[in-house]
Design goal:
Blueprint lengths: L8 H10 L9 E2 L2 H7 L2 E6 L9 H10 L3 H4 L3 E4 L3 H13 L3 E6 L4 H9 L3 E5 L3 H15 L2 E2 L6 H16 L6 E5 L4 H13 L4 E7 L4 H8 L21 H10 L2 E5 L1 H15 L9 H8 L1 H4 L3 E6 L13
Keywords: Magnesium, Pyridoxal phosphate
Pfam families: PALP (PF00291)
InterPro entries: Ser/Thr_deHydtase_PyrdxlP-BS (IPR000634), TrpB-like_PALP (IPR001926), TrpB-like_PALP_sf (IPR036052)
Amino acid sequence: MNPIPEINSDKIREARKRIDLMVHWTPLMRSSALDKMAGCELIFKCENFQKVGAFKARGAANAVLKLDPSQRVNGVATHSSGNHAAALARAASEAGIPAYIVMPSTAPEIKKQAVKEYGGVIFECEPNLLAREEGLRKVVDTYGAVFIPPYDHWDVIEGQATCAFEIFEEGLSLDVLLSPVGGGGLLAGTALSAHFYSPDTQVIGAEPEGADDAKKSFLAGRRIPVEKPNTIADGLLTSLGEINFGIISEHVTDILTVNDEEIIAAMRLIYERMKLVIEPSCAVPLAAVLRNKTRFQNQKVGIILSGGNVDLAKLPFR
């Protein structure tokens, strides 16, 4: 069975052109100090410099811009704990339409502020999937808005695929490319870009041990939703999406897990050695490389730094 009927190489390229005025072509950065620590050549794709501070700007922009005029009339809606919420609010604002965002009450304040600044209307709910989905249903029924899911959506995945597309467009030949995985939109998009533009590059997901449903699902060959996620990486708490799982199952080599202590250590290294502001979820791939040095020894390894929306008053180190 072919799990990618909706996306091909031309569509990823078209998506990059479509969203060009709404997102940054983010830079690649390196660190000789981290190369020595990891025993391999690391290339970091800095989505922490992206609009709204995260890769989510890509998928949201692509999804909104692909709506036809009749779909845009009543705006868009979603449920999200943070980065997708801000990304959709911004994309909607740029398109001149309203955005209605259902957010758990426990979402980081910095992410709630971002949604408001981009003109999004927030509806808070209890911090569980059932409450989020019920809140979304009410919003859609009330306003007639189009639901743009955070990750389990072809147009969103297509937009996220443009991140890795940019890496390969710069002519880099990577042995491995790592992406964090929560709902799986970025990892699925990354896997598709590698499949079409750099088939010799292995794509590996990185995930917290406290929210390891993607790893379990990958090994079992079926989706196993996370029940009680517990990790500092708040952007990776969601369960793997259905569309994403199909793509990941076929095109991802492996999923590696790390604990919170390793995530914090990797996060601190990026702050200290690269002078970059990143959120905990962003540090998970580097933590995975440092935990598995033998596996990556002497290879050229790409790491997607997924976002930089962190509450600086709550940094997990001093």
